[in-house]
Amino acid sequence: MNTLVPAAWNRHLAGVGNQVIFMGAFWRSIFRSGFEWNEFLNQCFIVGYKSLSLVGITGFILGFVLTLQSEPTMKDFGAVSFVPSMVAISVIREIGPVIIALICAGKIASSIGAELGSMKVSEQIDAMEVSGANPVQYLVVTRILACVIMIPLLTLMADALALLGGFAASNINNDLTFQLYFSKAFSALSFTDLVPAFIKTIFFGFAIGFVGCYKGYNSDRGTESVGVAANSAVVSASLWIIFLDAIAVQLTSVFAYN
Q1: Residues whose CB falls within 8 Å of the CB of residue 170, separated by 6 or more in sequence, listed in order
Q2: What is the pLDDT of residues 13-55, one digit of tens each?
Q3: For residues 235 and 206, is the Cβ–Cβ distance under 8 A?
Q4: pLDDT tens for residues 183-240?
Q5: Comparing C-alpha atoms, which of 19, 58, 5 is closest to residue 240?
Q6: 147 in Cβ contact with 44 (< 8 Å)
Q7: How far apart are CA 112 and CA 228, in angstroms?
Q8: Most buried of 48, 153, 162, 170 (most Cβ within 10 A)?
Q9: Distance CA 105, CA 126 (A)
């Protein structure tokens, strides 16, 4: 038992060290000449456009269900008129960024991990290194930057559709005009609600792209390692999203009260 604990601890520290080295290789490759613009645009298309339907449906249902669940309770307190404001604050400040990031972690991080893992198994990455190409610049930098740019944009779209979903749910039992609903929704929002929520989606995107690339790029030699890389990428990215969100909430609270 005593020998197992140090061995597990050593493996954990070795994994942390490998991630730091991988992070350093990523930052060095960003500033090298010969940035792969075509691959970057292709990854933006894959990460952004191919996730539109999933993210859009998720956002709309999120606002729709949140409104339906909130209205009965708010009606008991005679505060139905505050439902649009409550939905807007909840979705834009916290629920929207986190739920969309977790959805993207399941779709994008697993896809990147499986793709790079299969390239590692088929020795395509080794072939790139032998030919003198920089696989980190071509495979890793483009995917991480695509996630950093597209996931915040996907979150903004999901937030807008969540408000539309809330508007649709509000008109099931009530009769609110489009202008009245959105004037109530946006009247409760402030600059301090929008900016921190948008900034943390950038970190969510970085975590999703980095974890997916790291797990796939450093997968083992074997066909089963592709599935392992995809699965571990989803789990690790989801944990990082929750951890980063907890830090963001604390920092926002500190700056808001100071």
Answers
A1: 67, 71, 83, 84, 176, 181
A2: 777 888 889 999 999 988 888 888 999 999 999 999 999 999 9
A3: no
A4: 988 888 888 788 889 999 999 999 999 999 999 998 887 778 888 889 999 999 999 9
A5: 19
A6: no
A7: 12
A8: 162
A9: 27
